[in-house]
Request: fold
Amino acid sequence: MFNPDNNQLKELISDNSNNEVLRIRADEVRRKYYGNRVFVRGLIEISNICKNDCYYCGIRKSNRNISRYRLTEEEIYSCCETGYNLGFRTFVLQGGEDLYFSDIVLCRIVNNIKNKYPDCAVTLSMGERSYESYKNLKSAGADRYLLRHETADNTHYSKLHPAGMSLENRKKCLYNLKSLGYQTGTGFMVGSPYQTVENIISDLRFMQEIQPEMIGIGVFIPHHDTPFRDYPHGSAELNIKLISIIRLMFPKALIPATTALGTVSPDGRERGIQAGCNVVMPNLSPLMFRKSYELYDNKICTGEESAQCIECLRKRVESVGYELDMSRGDYPDV
Ligand code: 5AD
Ligand code: FES
Reply:
């Protein structure tokens, strides 16, 4: 197993001469466990209402310039039905920290989806909740949970988030999710304001501690209605190199080629796949709300029907010699 020390990591991150070697090795490792398969997750953005105020995020509560929406339960089920008919077997319910989604409401939704589609996995990405809440949602049938740690450095964390949010609590949530038996996803933004090479090394070390089943990293992209509007977006090249490093350090991880990477570079997702990504997440949200879930500027896939999005991704994945796999795509045990 690839277990670089801090000096090696620092050099790999700062110097680009080994990028192609890293990429080829990472691709070999992913082929060993996954062949050329790329798993599909249907993303349903259920609400852009959020009680938090993260400085980087377009749906932060202080942003008065977006129209807020929350899907009805019927709308959520209808997205699942569309997705199921298109062959999706994983649904990711993602949203801001919207207090409307109490345990009672969210458990009912998870339960209904699992009853209707027992062959599907349900992933939640609804932010920080209590241990009890995660436990209830697990009992209701949730299989997986995505909660990026965003940065594993306390000082950096406090530059990205207002007082009241803490890395400590974020980590606690992740340990709770793990202990409850969720397939747990974490990750961070590449090139977020104030990020240093040392911060990235801390991110990798934290992930070694947590051993996440899923790892999502995507470039930071400024949103015009946030305090970080004037910061530059992160580098696609660094994002791609980090994908390779992460693939080598976490050989079996499920790693998405993110929409953010596809937004800063037209062939970003394809290059992500060639560098070790094995997941894509086409958008299943109703078209009329897509534009309102803009976490960052110029987000792609906001104008395409779900069916178009999956076909577009299929073409992209096949164009670089990989193949879409529509099965649940669980983390391989052992
Ligand atoms: N640029 C890139 N990614 C972002 N996210 C939030 N805002 C931005 C942005 N401006 C990411 C965060 C969050 C995930 C859902 O989207 O990492 O965890
Ligand atoms: Fe959504 Fe291309 S992946 S339109």
User: Anything to note?
Assistant: The mean pLDDT is 97. The first helix runs from residue 6 to 14.
